[in-house]
UniProtKB/TrEMBL annotation:
PANTHER family: METHYLTRANSFERASE (PTHR43464), SAM-DEPENDENT METHYLTRANSFERASE (PTHR43464:SF3). It comes from the Bacteria. The keyword Transferase applies. InterPro entries: Methyltranfer_dom, SAM-dependent_MTases_sf. The keyword Transmembrane does not apply. This is Class I SAM-dependent methyltransferase. One of its GO terms (biological process) is methylation. It comes from Nonomuraea montanisoli. Keywords: Methyltransferase, Transferase. Residues 37-164 form the Methyltransferase domain. GO terms for molecular function: methyltransferase activity.
Amino acid sequence: MHRQLISHLAHADHPIASPVSAANLDRLLTRAKLPAGARILDLGCGEGAWLLRALELYPDATADGVDIGQEALASAAESAGRLGLSDRLRLHQVPADSFEATQPYDLVLCVGATHAFGALADALDGVRRHLRPGGLALVGEGFWERPPSKELLELLGSDPDEYAGLAGTVARARDAGYATVYAHTSTRDEWDEYEWSWTGTLTRWALDNPGPDGDEALAAADEHRDMWLDGYRDVLGFVTLLLRPTDR
């Protein structure tokens, strides 16, 4: 089972695909205060939950979703059809850092998908390419709530500089030429809801589908749960920044 399929299955009951509640997703999108006829882009859109909600909140907006996951994009298309939004949503199965657009966007999202570009600074540079003057970016990124142990870094295959603290994350955005105009820091409840959903939904699918795929999915759920409960819980945080480019 490839990584994108595992992720698609695990996010079935939490399509927001980040430790963010539906109410806080609405708050972030509403705070963007998009103009009439807004153009929206999501780089790493997954099942499209952020884009679909944005199209509901801004009835005259149009959107493009970019992802490499075939299953996720199929789910996004199905949801758009069910919600009557298909005519305002275009989906593209290409890497986020390879997407080319003919016109700039009023809002560009990259929530929990900055790894598609490399480091946060690379993602912010990639987002900037698609923004119109005065446009906004909505970027979700991890940060260290407290310094990680050597053991946790080894478990995650990470290094101390992969993330900064919360203040350092805002500073990294500033150094990349962005001003933070609003933000949401995910709560422990949001993290727990996300992680229990991710691991539990994948576990249920595995038990309902015995065989090699089910075994692989169950192993992935167990590994993820152990890494969370015994590792990064209360160490790794998540912040979603609403950013506006500056003149540097």
